[in-house]
Design a protein that fits this description.
single chain; 14 strands; 403 residues; six-stranded mixed β-sheet; 38% helix; alpha/beta; eight-stranded mixed β-sheet
Length: 403
Amino acid sequence: MSSPTRVLVLNSGSSSLKYQLLDMRDSSRLAVGLVERIGERTSRLKHTCVGGGDTREQQGPMHDHEAALKAVAGELAKDGLGLDSPDLAAIGHRVVHGGEFFSEPTVIDDTVLTEIERLIPVAPLHNPANLTGIRTARALRPDLPQVAVFDTAFHTTMPQAAARYAIDPKIADRHRIRRYGFHGTSHAYVSRETARLLGKAPEDVNVIVLHLGNGASASAVEGGRCVDTSMGLTPLEGLVMGTRSGDLDPAVIFHLQRVGGMSMDEIDTLLNKRSGLFGLCGDNDMREIRRRVDEGDEQAALAFDIYIHRLKKYIGAYYAVLGRVDAVVFTAGVGENAAPVREAAVAGLEGLGLAVDGERNAVRADGPRLVSPDGARVAVAVVPTDEELEIATQTYELVGKNS
């Protein structure tokens, strides 16, 4: 009997459940789907059987993640892909925060669950939802290997000089305060695919990865290992994002509390949900912002300029950290699709060997590609991210090692 080759990837949010079923023989997708508004009266499940091209939707109350996952299992079963299939090798779970404890994908047991739970104070929005998805899946298939793949794991290779904040180490250690970084599965996948695009081994390539979506982060990857990243203790630090401020003088918080009379919760909401591009111009969709810029909207133009200014600063900073850069690569929704962002981000950096070819940059394509001119000293690339495939790959490799 042949070994099972399928991996179900689950990304459990507080009120949502994203999933993909992949066959690891050829990394093909068999099914993809999303459950939204879990716990509300109008929950919605959208399921697509990729091979058959069939998309189905169902609406109705799904009171909790157990009900949602059972509904997903039912949809998979209709396509002959159910959770009871002998072809299912494992379930891979996206877990946002692994702290310093988890530096690689990990088979889930009670000890792992306890440690993920202990990290809730540094990931209060994400880890509880991730835990709910894990516990639900384990209850449905207790016999099946379940693997946690951590957003923070790729960044655990950062040296202490990059990971530490300049505060009292005893206080920092007591409260687990350090720079963890996020989007790690994306940075790992994209840096490796960039090396492949260049025809080199990952250990021979230095790459600056720019993951630009509604959440955004940059990383400096030296020979396949992360040596710096823009997000910190939480995903709030770093680049200007859709609704997050990114880097900010910490005294702004004290000022808003003491002078502005705002509570900590109000400041938290301001910086995480009402700042960034949205706070600057009322839009966090880069397509809409660019449309407004093209129409002469000064507020949108300022928001775009602030976004690009911060991006350039990180490119320059990580160029200095790496010393030698082989490629700057753009990924995620904005990075892959917004040609004006790529053009503006490297404009004026010709002295660093960075430039884009206007025609290549304007082309929309699905796969990895170079957008820099022939003979450029530093490649500028667009590499679509695939976090689900990265989670499935890490899960399948780990299960294979442990079988």
